[in-house]
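Predict the 3D structure for this chain.
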Amino acid sequence: MLRPHLHLDTIITALDYAAIAIGAIGGALHARNHKRYQYDIIGALALALVSALGGGIARDVLLNQGPPLALTNLGYLYTALLAGLATLLLGPRLFRQLEGFMLFIDAIAIALFAVAGTTRAQSFGLDALPAVMLGITTAVGGGSLRDVLSGTTPRVFERGTFYAIAALLAAVSYLVLDRLGLPDTTSVIVAVVLGFALRMASLRFNWHTDALRISRR
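Done. Predicted structure below.
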């Protein structure tokens, strides 16, 4: 029989693994479908690892609580490597089917990483604002490093659909629900769903941020 209430540490770990796997899939797809560069398997796996682990490593360095988990927990590395490798080894037909879910996968990763980063920061006693900042860093850090290494401007810095904003909603939602006294599992699930839903809605309805620079004709 399943326990109705899971310990927060268990939830954080589960979030980390899920987000790492999805981030690695997104990184591998990004490399395999890149329009400018042709990556070999080493380069593609490197992008998968960066996408999966980069945000978490940045978070752990800022928390200053010892070596990053990605370097001490081999399960994280194996998860990222296996997810990236499995994506690269898919046959052409299966790859084309999975490629269509890339935005879907990316949206899930954003929400999962944001909540995972926020919960981990909170577990170290950080206040709400620093916890939210680290949640966003965890969510967008890996993708930003992937974009830099693949020769493009990180999407989080450009005008576009809601990316960091979706991570912000997921992080804030978790903290609000937690402060209201909801069970950890409920707070996590609702926060992830809200962040994912906002990201997908911004893509579906073309909601986007505005550029600060005024175009001159």
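The two ends are 67 Å apart (CA to CA).
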